Amino acid sequence: MISNLILVVGVAVLSAACRSFENRAFFRLGTLGFGATSFLAGWLLGGSVWLGVALTASWLFLPWLEILTRIRHLRIPIERTLKPRTPPNRASFPGFSDITDEIETEGFEHLEDIGWNHEDSRQFFRVLDGGTRKIQACICLAEQHEFAFHYTTLTSRASDGRIFMTWNYPFSYGLKLPPQLKVRRFSGLGPFSEMLKTHAQFLKGQGIESAQLLTEDPNETISTMQSEMREQISHNIDLGLLKPEGDKLIRYTPRGMFFLWIQFLRDFIRFS
Asked: 3-state class of 260 per DSSP?
């Protein structure tokens, strides 16, 4: 039994060591190692191959703990009213000023800082206008409980109602995107200038020329963004991922929670 315990601990330590490397192959090897550790723990320490299989599979079902304990009770406002917001401080968003400077260096002008709050969920947006490029840049900070992350978007809106967005959103998105919204993911490893080039290539690949794009009206920024968020919520209600809860709130349906689990599995594979 002692030798089996040493083997299990040894595989676990080796797996953790592999995941400490920046090399993608070693990182994935470490992920597989944790699965192997779970299997060996069930087989060698628990005395059952099936227990080992169950422990290994539990990694894939672990998100259901979060889904059933927190997300199942989560209520989101149908109307997310955007209002002027104070920019985040350096503690909550250390690189905020640097990202802003980088975008402004490319000729974008700061329009406004807006956001919405609901209970312990908060979202902040710094909106910048690209002028004749007909591109709107947005620095976004999402906060919930003690968890926070940021991302940047580049958006161009066509006269036929289609919206083209390039973003470096770090995870698989928790809602279905409406059909008129076309999204290109940027790896997030390059500078903003590379993201800008990626967006230009995205538009070109979609057959979109500058004449087909709308010139953004700074006075319509809030109403446009609120309208697009409302359309996204309506789309997910129509798909059955969200369900109204009274007049002002919505919540995830069982189908929506299953969708979130699938999104987690995609991230698990992508980040492994």
From this structure: helix
120-159 pLDDT, tens digit each: 788 999 999 998 899 999 999 998 877 889 999 999 999 9
Give residue 198's identity as a one-letter amino acid code: T
Q: Please tell me the number of Cα atoms within 13 Å of 150 on its side-chain side.
A: 17
Residue 221: count other Cβ atoms within 10 Å of its Cβ: 19
Is the pLDDT assigned to residue 103 strictly greater than 80? Answer: yes
Residue 99 CA to residue 95 CA, distance in Å, equals 6
How far is CA 79 from each of CA 19, 115, 118, 126, rounded to the nearest angstrom?
42, 12, 11, 20
Burial of 137 (0-12, 13-18, 19+ CB in 10 A): buried
DSSP state of 213: B
Domain ranges of the chain: 2-61, 79-251
φ/ψ of 242, rounded to 5, equals -125, 155
What's the start-to-end Cα distance of the chain, in Å?
31
Cα(101)–Cα(108) distance, rounded to whole angstroms?
10
pTM above 0.85, yes or no: no
